[in-house]
């Protein structure tokens, strides 16, 4: 008996990397799977290639599982509706959505175009909304369901040249929490995962210096399968009551991330003026200001 026996899962961006690993792990756990993938380049461009998604479907069939391929774009409302409908038509229900589809257009902020920004936010943040919203009526009607949304430490901590990606990934955190709050009464759960894995999404990291080369060699140890296990666990009935949380998976480590809460306060009975804030508040808070860290400066130890 698998933890997802009798369940149906939709995994977006499921032809490669973390998405592929999640789709296969869902099948091993007993779920029927909709393998969604648009089959485009890392930047989201190209005419679309059906073969990668079909190969994952074949892999699932080879281990005795059930799966269908879907080639819709999460960035399009109608496509998101159709991929959820495909799950209902093929398998009779939908129980889990893993929002994994993504693209990258890394560029320094002062050089970023509107198209660069919109293309990435449209897939990550709007795509997560589209697919989640498409599944919501079915989850509500059946009185249960689970979402897992892929975030990133690029949004939680920060990274260089990724304003579009970081904004989308931090937005997904807020979206996940809002879904958890709004749909709790229907027994629907929503959690976010920041995955650490060597995939084509991170393979563009520069290797111009020995330090960068050393970091990349460490990242190559991070296999997508370790992320997949966490995603499947969060979608299972055994994770009932786990909602509105932010997790991370880094090889054999699993994290629970903090969420923003006040850490210092300053009060005056007379109200604040700009001059008083400059004189009193900023010096009082300065020791607790966060430095401009990048993700790699926070997660400095070797994967275990």
Automatic annotation (TrEMBL):
SMART domains: PKS_KR. It comes from the Bacteria. Pfam families: adh_short. Residues 7-201 form the Ketoreductase domain. SUPFAM superfamilies: NAD(P)-binding Rossmann-fold domains. InterPro entries: KR_dom, NAD(P)-bd_dom_sf, Peroxisomal_Beta-Oxidation, Sc_DH/Rdtase_CS, SDR_fam. Belongs to the short-chain dehydrogenases/reductases (SDR) family. This is 3-hydroxyacyl-CoA dehydrogenase. It comes from Kumtagia ephedrae.
């Amino acid at each position: 008996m698998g933890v997802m026996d009798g369940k149906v899962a939709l995994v977006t961006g499921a032809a490669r990397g973390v998405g592929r690993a999640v789709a296969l792990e869902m099948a091993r756990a007993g779920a029927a799977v909709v393998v969604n993938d648009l089959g485009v380049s890392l930047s989201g461009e190209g005419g679309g290639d059906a073969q990668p998604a079909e190969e994952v479907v074949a892999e699932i069939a080879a281990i005795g599982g059930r799966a269908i391929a879907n080639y819709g774009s999460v960035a399009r409302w109608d496509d998101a509706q159709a991929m959820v409908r495909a799950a209902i038509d093929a398998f009779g229900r939908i129980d889990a959505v893993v929002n994994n589809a993504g693209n990258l257009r890394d560029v320094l902020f002062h050089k970023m175009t509107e198209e660069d920004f919109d293309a990435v936010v449209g897939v990550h943040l709007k795509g997560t909304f589209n697919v989640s919203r498409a599944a919501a009526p079915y989850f509500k009607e059946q009185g249960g369901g689970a979402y897992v949304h892929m975030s990133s430490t690029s949004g939680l901590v920060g990274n260089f040249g990724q304003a579009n990606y970081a904004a989308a990934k931090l937005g997904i955190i807020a979206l996940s929490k809002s879904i958890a709050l709004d749909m709790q009464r229907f027994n629907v759960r929503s959690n976010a995962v920041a995955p650490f894995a060597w995939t084509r999404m991170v393979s563009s990291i520069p290797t111009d210096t020995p330090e960068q080369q050393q970091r990349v060699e460490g990242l190559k140890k991070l296999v997508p399968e370790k992320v997949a296990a966490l995603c499947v666990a969060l979608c299972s009935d055994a994770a009932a009551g786990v909602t509105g949380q932010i997790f991370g998976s880094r090889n054999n480590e699993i994290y629970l991330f903090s969420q923003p809460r006040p850490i210092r306060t300053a009060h005056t009975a007379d109200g604040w003026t700009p001059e008083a804030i400059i004189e009193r508040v900023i010096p009082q808070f300065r020791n607790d200001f966060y430095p401009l860290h990048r993700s790699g400066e926070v997660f400095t130890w070797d994967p275990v």
